[in-house]
Amino acid sequence: MKAKTVRDLAAIARERRRHLGWSQSQLAKKAGVGRDWVVQFEKGKVTVEWGLVVRALRELGFSLELRVEEGQTGAGDLDRILASTQNERRKS
């Protein structure tokens, strides 16, 4: 599945929740958030906390994979960026 916007990601999560037969309240309980948060996320609210988004997606059985699209310039090497971030954490 491909998501280019928060709304895309929200729509995918909402459809997965429905496919699993879960209510918004059930997802909220599993992810440790309030139902209102799930409502806002599923509406595509761009200011939702990303740590909670990742937690909710994990409960829905998703993992995230980031890729630089073919032909994009200036996006950088994601593996290099991640390795650099991990090295910084080790030094702290």
Structural account:
The protein has a domain at 6-66: lambda repressor-like DNA-binding domains (434 Repressor (Amino-terminal Domain), Orthogonal Bundle), CATH 1.10.260. Helices cover 60% and strands 0% of the residues. It has helices at 6-20, 24-31, 35-42, 50-59, 78-91. α2 crosses α4. It starts with 5 loop residues before the first helix and ends with a helix.
Short description:
With 92 residues, the protein is mostly helical.
Can you tag this structure with a few keywords?
60% helix; 434 Repressor (Amino-terminal Domain); 92 residues; mainly alpha
Topology:
Elements: H1 6-20, H2 24-31, H3 35-42, H4 50-59, H5 78-91
Helix pairs in contact: 2-3, 2-4
The CATH superfamily of the domain at 6-66 bears the name: lambda repressor-like DNA-binding domains
- Average of pLDDT: 86
Q: Please identify, by name, the CATH architecture of the domain at 6-66.
A: Orthogonal Bundle
Give the termini distance in whole angstroms.
36 Å
- Alpha-carbon Rg, integer: 16 Å
Elements, N to C (H/E): HHHHH
Low-pLDDT sequence parts: none
Task: Tell me the overall shape.
Answer: globular
Q: How many strands appear in the DSSP assignment?
A: 0
